[in-house]
Amino acid sequence: MEKSLIYKPSAQEIVFLDQRRLPLEKVYVKCDSFDCMRDAILHMKLRGAPLIGVAGAFGLFLWCLENQKKYKEADVARFLRDFQKACGEMASTRPTAVNLRWACDRVYKHVSQKNNKNVASAIESIRKLCIEMDREDIKMCENIGANGARHFKKKYGGHLRILTHCNAGSLATCGFGTALGVIVTAHKNGILDHAFVDETRPYLQGARITAYELSQDKIPYYLICDNMAGWLMKKGEIDIVVTGADRIAANGDAANKIGTYSLSVLARENNVPMYIAAPYSTFDLRIKTGEEIVIEERPEREVTHVFDVRIAPEGARVKNPSFDVTPHRNLAGIITELGVIEKPFTRNIKKMMAGLHE
Which of 45, 149, 239, 309 is the most buried (most CB within 10 A)? Predict the structure, then answer.
């Protein structure tokens, strides 16, 4: 797969595929402004927790370029006050995925703690940090893929049939993905028989994006409707479930695309181990359990229409929570770039995060 997010320094713009148009057509978006990047994240032209974190950071860099002329070179303090407001605005674009706020907080903390002599040097430090975050995300994906595949081989052997939900691949990250990165690496290491891909209603990220990525990478898979997974588990056709996550609480409860909770219940009922694959930036230790996670409500049209074709009666009342929360008791482990976290989650998550600061 091609890279999901490309920074073009000569044009000072960010280029990416409009994911809403896949797989029927490949349309590229060029963003050269803060509002363009924020709109792209809000309307899911690009999505995926790790990717919108890095995209949000680049959006803040574009804000700097747009507003640089408003400030005298020595007026760093006023620049930082206004930049902090822009960080808050970007962070609030999508409330459930913690990676976006993590990235915005990281960018602001980075620039505010540096002894920048002028506004230009502050902006240059932000540019360098965005590039560094992009590279870190690529490496993160490689490590998650390697850790997950190694763990699966050791614990479950080979010829694995792995189900995934939504999209946690190269179009949700800057690298080759988190959950899908595990599948890609398992295939490369010869332990994957095939993948199962949930269609993932209502936005169809599985059918449109994950299936597209697996096709591009020539990895064998079956596309299934969301409500088929339980029956396939009962028939013994699924060995493992692995998904991404948008926020993980201190106890291991994980928010992910709507339908993940249902999968976890079905997996537990049928003794199928379920894993979350996510970077450390997805952990939010400020919240103790998943009950504290804010669930984003998306527009009704995503449920009543598919590709602008109405599939429901006029006037149909709609609920469209975009995420749900899987309780930690339904999980076998959490695959990170630092290793695989197993139960007890609260203690082992705390231990992993403490190790980052040693």
Answer: 149
Cα separation, 282 vs 126, whole angstroms = 22
What dotted CATH number matches 142-355? 3.40.50.10470
Compute the distance between CA of residue 255 and CA of residue 260 in angstroms, rounded to an integer. Answer: 8
Phi, psi of 107 (to 5 degrees): -65, -45
Q: What angle do CA 239, 243, 244 make, to 5 degrees?
A: 160
| Rounded Cα distance, 5 and 343, in Å | 35
Q: What is the pTM of this model?
A: 0.92
The tokens of 298 are what?
């998306």
CB under 8 A, 24+ apart: contacts of 154-160? 156/239, 156/240, 156/273, 157/191, 158/190, 158/191, 158/193, 159/191, 159/193, 160/186, 160/191, 160/192, 160/193, 160/239, 160/240
What are the CA-CA distances from residue 61 to residues 50, 193, 268 (Å)?
17, 43, 44
Strand 160-164 relative to strand 192-198, pairing: parallel
Kind and range of the H or E element at 275?
strand 274-277
Q: What are 57-77's pLDDT values in tens digits?
A: 999 999 999 999 999 888 899
CATH 1.20.120.420 fits 5-136, yes or no: yes
Residues 297-344: pLDDT tens digits? 999 999 999 989 999 999 999 999 999 999 999 999 999 999 999 999
Contacts of 135 (CB under 8 A, 6+ apart): none
pLDDT value for 357: 59
C-alpha of 253 from chain center: 16
Domain boundaries, the chain: 5-136, 142-355
Give the active site residues. 246
Q: Is 161 helix (H, G, I), strand (E, B) or coil?
A: strand
Which pLDDT score, from 0 to 100, does residue 11 have? Answer: 87
